[in-house]
Amino acid sequence: MTTRPVLLSSCAKATTAAEARFRIDVPIEGRRGARVVALDDDAATIVRRLALQQWNGARFFTLVAGAGSGRNGVGDDPDEMPLHRTNGTDTRLADELMAADVAVMLATADGGAAAAASAIGRACARRGIMTAGLVLGDRHEVGDVVVALRPYAQVLLVTADEQDVHEVLTALRA
């Protein structure tokens, strides 16, 4: 077995002074417009817990009952979808997406989440907002919401580990 020499540019400790001039030594700033929406009741519990942690300006929401399904006066316009902030106040999806640069949808079950996921995904797609879908649960039990998220989510993760949600939000600099 032959070993190859390490090239100077392949290791941060081995860079020359000329190469080091181009290194970025400042921390990467967090996002200013991350929006995290729980699509069902179990996801809402997780989102409320996450909202208590330190984030880079992320905002956390739960759905109003029937949101995204064409009921309660929402109609087919996803912009009018009502949301609850985790502090208990109400807002609309359109208002929250104005300053958003990423929308993360969290689901744990199929119970109505598919329609809301599709509505939020369409609203984000129209605005060019990156969308991530995080689905907690057994892959055999969450198929409908995965299908609804797939066309809109640049990041789509099905997992059984709640810690993965925190990790993805951290990776997205939420």
Spatial separation of the terminal alpha carbons: 45 Å
How much of the polypeptide forms β-strand, as a percent range?
15-25%
Q: What is the residue-averaged pLDDT?
A: 83
- Written as H for each helix and E for each strand, in order along the chain, the element string is HEHEEEHEHEHEH
Helix-residue proportion: 25-40%
Record the strand order, biggest sheet: 4-3-2-1-5-6-7
Main beta-sheet strand count, sense and barrel state: 7 strands, mixed
Shape: globular
- Helix run count: 6
As for the number of domains, it is 1
* CATH architecture title: 3-Layer(aba) Sandwich
Name the CATH class. Answer: Alpha Beta
- Compute the CA-based radius of gyration: 20 Å
CATH homologous superfamily name?
A: Tubulin/FtsZ, GTPase domain
Query: Structural class per helix/strand content?
Result: alpha/beta
CATH topology: Rossmann fold
Protein name: 3-methyl-2-oxobutanoate hydroxymethyltransferase
